[in-house]
Amino acid sequence: VYKLKRMQLEDIPLVLPLAEWIWGGDKSDDVSAKICLSEMPFLSPGCSSQLLTKALGTAIILGSCLNKTPIMMNMISNQSAAGISRSSLYGEALVYSCGVFYGFLSGHPFTAFGENLSLLLQNIVLVLLAWKYSSRPIQWQEKILVVLGAAVFSIGVLQYLPEDQRYFLMSATWPVMLYARGTQVLETFQVKHTGQLSIVTTSMNLVGALIRVGTTLKETGDMVVLSGCLLSFGLS
Question: Hey, is 122 helix, strand or coil?
């Protein structure tokens, strides 16, 4: 019966590729796409934990797509960038960029780092909004420096960073993260209100960082990434 069920599942279009995506990366001998399909619907602990990890990783990525939306809506509706630190935005953009590059170059599953890409794109939008709605005109020199710096950094990482030094991408983000989050805390303290910040976004960062600790342990076991997740959780 189980063999027939497995064959029927494998014969359904996209089921086997989906199973390979979920369980194919697990290095355990008792976990593979075909083994886990044969156990449906009563999965073994190994298969079920890997399925849960993938589900949580996907949920983090989907949730991250809305992470910065409350801040964007506040800025657009109020036509203001009050309470928003541009230094914090620049620092967070660098942190997210390093996460994307490190995950991609290290061959990690997209579910292990995909939220960094989503957050990076949203952060770019926030930078543009901060430039537009700033109470004081932004100097063109600052804009050129930011764009040029981003281009040089991207080319340098993709073309010239040696494989054995990729870990610097993540370890270097720790002081940057401290600076970025720290400047935002200082900005909030100085203006005595949260401005266009959102408790929803902060809460999502907190929960996402906590979940990412577990998925990182399961999917990659990369201690460099894990340390960054713990730092992000603490700062949130």
Answer: helix
